[in-house]
Design a protein that fits this description.
This protein has 130 residues and is of the alpha+beta class. Helix content is 34%, strand content 34%.
């Protein structure tokens, strides 16, 4: 993945935010580039890698905005295997994304993706609203 294609989401709300590291996969399928985060189960796509990253950033913002407004973000993160630590479940001070082994156990399609595509990975930090 081109180093210029940075994750451009720094989402927070009145409760603040905490930073968490996530992995992004970049791969090509047919004529489209796909950016996918197994940690958040969010993806974006486009004709170029830059377009795919812009699409991913938009989809991630929509995901965070929707789940914050519906007050379901913390439940969704727990469902995805995240650990919310220190503080309370509603207002954690630290969050940990699921490990690779946990991701592979919970998401059987992930192994297929890794085995069937030439995947580039990159680690990014994202602000998770509290």
């Amino acid at each position: 993945m081109n180093k210029n294609h940075l994750l451009d989401v720094d989402f927070s709300n009145s409760g603040g935010s905490v930073k968490a590291k996530i992995i992004l996969f970049s791969f090509k399928e047919d004529d489209n580039f796909i950016i996918y985060s197994p940690h958040l189960d969010v993806s974006g796509y486009g004709k170029t890698e830059k377009d795919a990253m812009e699409s991913f950033n938009h989809c991630l913002t929509v995901f965070l905005d929707y789940t914050v407004n519906k007050q379901t973000l913390h439940n969704e993160l727990i469902h995805l295997g995240w650990q919310l630590k220190k503080g309370t479940t509603k207002s954690p001070k630290k969050v940990n994304a699921p490990s690779w082994s946990d991701l592979l156990k919970k998401n059987t399609s992930l192994e297929d993706l890794l085995n069937s595509h030439n995947v580039t990975t990159i680690q990014r930090e994202v602000a998770i609203p509290m």
